[in-house]
Amino acid sequence: MTDLLLTSPASLPGRLRVPVIASPMFLVSNPALVIAQCCAGIVGSFPALNARPQEELGNWLTQIETALQACHAAEPDRIIAPYAVNLIVHQSNTRLQDDLATCVKHRVPIVITSLHAPDLVVEKVHAYGGIVLHDVTTLRHARKAIAAGVDGLILVCAGAGGHAGALSPFALAAEVRAIFDGLLVLAGSISNGAGVLAAQVMGCDLAYMGTRFIASEESAAQPLHKQMIVDGSAADIIYTPYFSGVPGNYLKPSIRAAGLDPDNLQPQDKSAADFGKPKRWKDIWGSGHGIGAIRDILPAAEIVRQLAEQYAQARARVGASL
């Protein structure tokens, strides 16, 4: 199989069927989903923290690498994308050093970092030829990540699922592109191929898509979570710091099912004290604003096939209108 490591960060879009990175989703992304995404031609990713206990991370990486090798052996001409692992760079993540060591051992092609500037991660990943992409929600965060030497920035804008920023993608993409010529990945309400093309028109190289893949057959999301995505619209999303202290987008029906009123969340309410614990996090489900475009639960390969078709159609429409 062709080495999944990239010759350069700029070569990543050319290695994909559609210029998309499937975002790592807590308690949703798993090896089956990542394998299906990569074999379909887009970057598949997962949070290292989804592999539990920590020792399971190495097993997940071996499973993914073996499956991608088999996929290539069966169809040598098929576009097979590299995979990515998300590391939370924060003092509260007691697994960071062990997870990073496991990623280095497996030479993970793409490492996605979140929260603090990833200086140490960049050093170790660059040493074996991998690339580092860092989540940012503001220009200030972007400057810190650039100073740390990251290869690309993921602009987590308004409307993205989970812990999203509040800035318009039009604003953040323009400001960051003015100071950074590396890879830019845009996140926020992108659910179809037209949205992928729009991200590129705005000056980004790739789109970041998570919510569409919650409603996939391979995802580890609970069936009710998937159905809420299919049944919902942007009006069913609330942006609140109530559950983790950091603003994020969550499905109102899941909050109601947990016994709370999403339209009347009181910061001083002591009943929220347990929501930071993993047991309760399983009951509160994230989603981006783009769920209105999602109307079915499909295999990941079929979702990517549709994205490729929609992307080609959007390019043709734009070309015909010029």
Summarize the structure.
It is built from twelve helices and ten strands.
Question: Can you walk me through this structure?
Answer:
The chain has 322 residues and is of the alpha/beta class. Helices cover 38% and strands 15% of the residues. It has twelve helices and ten strands. The protein has helices at residues 31-40, 56-74, 96-106, 119-128, 139-148, 169-177, 193-201, 211-214, 223-231, 252-257, 278-281, 300-321, and strands spanning 20-22, 44-47, 83-89, 110-115, 131-136, 152-156, 183-187, 206-209, 237-240, 248-251. The strands form two sheets. The chain has an eight-stranded parallel β-sheet with strand order 1-8-7-6-5-4-3-2. α1 (31-40) runs parallel beside α2, α2 (56-74) runs parallel beside α3 (96-106) and α7 crosses α12. The longest helix is centred in the C-terminal third of the chain and has 22 residues, at 300-321. The protein is globular. Mean pLDDT is 93; it is low at 268-279.
